[in-house]
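User: I'm curious what two different proteins look like when written out as structure tokens. Can you demonstrate?

Assistant: Sure. I'll show them one after the other, since each token string lines up with its own sequence. Here's the first protein:
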Amino acid sequence: MAIRIIESKQNARVKELRAALLRPGRGETDLVALEGLHLVEEALRSGTRLQTIFVAQGHEHLLETLGAIDESVTEFLAVPREILDSVVSTESPQPIAALAHPRHWPWTEVLAKKSGTSALIVVLSGIQDPGNLGTILRSAEAFGATGILCLTGTVSRWNPKAMRASAGSVFRLPVLASSEAKAFQHLREAGIRILAAIAREAEPLNEVDLTGPVALVIGSEGSGLTPEIAAQCDAKITIPCPGPVESLNAAVAASVLLYEASRQRALAPASKKQRQP
């Protein structure tokens, strides 16, 4: 493995890493920055193409844990620890980082059914906390969601905190950033029922059939879904809460909704599971 030594913080690759961290997900084709061994490992396992792997000098042995990597695709740079620490955003910087080419998911992948089950889409509107976004991605993969739509105003999934909270799901789950108009257009053309998740005055979750193709629309942490978006949905659903709370955290609500969809689909007859327009 050929490792090039970098001594200057003005190096072009170091500048690229800093820029990717400052402006995560500025565009679908931009490089994204990965911090820490776990994220780099998850990216490689998912088939994500890495342009550059940075390792702090004295920690080159970490590269051996990554397995065989095509050196014609990925370059390896050894950087002084103080330079790498000054670039990354975590409070306790790890001695490894990378620049990756994010996968671009087409609409056909995001909306498609998987493994004989109907489409289960999560639509996120105005989610601002990257930790919430990452948790939602992790729950979505765990409970069998087939795709995620991030509407305009939702934090980038390539935000470092969102990626860490996703525990690698961000690399494997079909995710697409979209305008509100385009998202609803594609969902309707695919014959997917759109359900708005709201805090009250809606159909209880346990009484809603989630075995067919559905999209679960989750609103922002502070105010939930706007009336305009809720009005475009086919129905409104709510999670019954006997306790004296006004609403659930967005990530918790999404996880409960996804669990219920997964539970219903596991119990549904095979013919019903495979319903798809």
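Here's a second, unrelated protein for contrast:
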Amino acid sequence: MAGCAATAPPRTIIENCGPWSPIVVSKADVLTDSTAKQILSHDCVGVRLHCWPPPTPQACQAPPAQTK
């Protein structure tokens, strides 16, 4: 049975990053909080895939747990 098993080669950074890049917001842009969170989420996925560095050292760290 081992002869039937196929393993895919690991994906490279270029394949993971493909055609996308970080979204850079201009100081002149006006964003809602929701849009800003979506942009940060997109950019942090790229950081986790090692496509690009985080915009700031703390940008893509998990937020602290909220206490009640």
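A detail about the second structure: The mean pLDDT is 79.
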